[in-house]
Amino acid sequence: MKSYNGIYIPEGDSDELLQQSQWSRIRIPPTCCGDHQYPPAAQIQRIHMINEFQGEHRFLSNFYPARVTWMGHVYPTVEHAFQAAKFAAHPDVVKEIQEAESPGQSKKIARKHSKLVPAEWAIFTRELVMMYLLQQKFAKGTVMGDKLVATGGVKLVEGNTWGDTFWGVCDGKGENTLGQMLMIIRAQIR
């Protein structure tokens, strides 16, 4: 048996498996039998995708607590800052979003004032703002950056049930822009 970061793989199969795999994380199912017996390589499951930002992967969500700065203001989450960025010409709305008790509430406030969002926001600005905020949250050498790097080479998909097919994927359809941005940042900070 060979051990890779504490994961045991049967001799002979391990090198070939790891060379063929584009994924850096593998998991052996808990089906070991007997003393020091491990399943054959065929039973090793490769983790090749994180398909939702919940549970142990919640830290990937824009709703996860992580202080970021936008236009001189500090926000408790990327979601707060992103929603506030839509209203640069409306400081009263920015203040209301900044003081929102939760990321969900910040999003509701932004929806309430959606008529004030400039037309060019969706065309030119939103992706630049999101990337800027995510780069702060997942900066190299920070706890959050290290957690992102620890996802290895797996595909990150912001799976959702609320129909967001621009930032994520719903019912198998979507651009997964958020997931793609996170994978770009992960590659940059390795």
CATH homologous superfamily name of the largest domain?
YbiA-like
CATH fold node name of the largest domain: Tetracycline Repressor, domain 2
Order of helices and strands: EEHEEEEEHHHHHEH
Distance between the termini: 29 Å
Largest sheet: 2 strands, antiparallel
Total domain units: 2
**CATH class placement of the largest domain:** Mainly Alpha
- Secondary structure: number of strands: 8
Strand order within the widest beta sheet:
1-2
What would you call the structural class?
A: alpha+beta
Helix content: 25-40%
Could you explain how this protein is built, in words?
With 190 residues, this protein is an alpha+beta fold. Helix content is 38%, strand content 11%. It folds into 2 domains: 2-47, no CATH class; 55-189, Tetracycline Repressor, domain 2. The chain has helices at 13-20, 78-85, 91-98, 103-112, 120-137, 143-149, 177-189, and strands spanning 2-4, 7-9, 26-27, 45-46, 49-50, 68-70, 73-75, 155-156. The longest helix is centred in the C-terminal third of the chain and has 18 residues, at 120-137. It starts with a strand and ends with a helix.
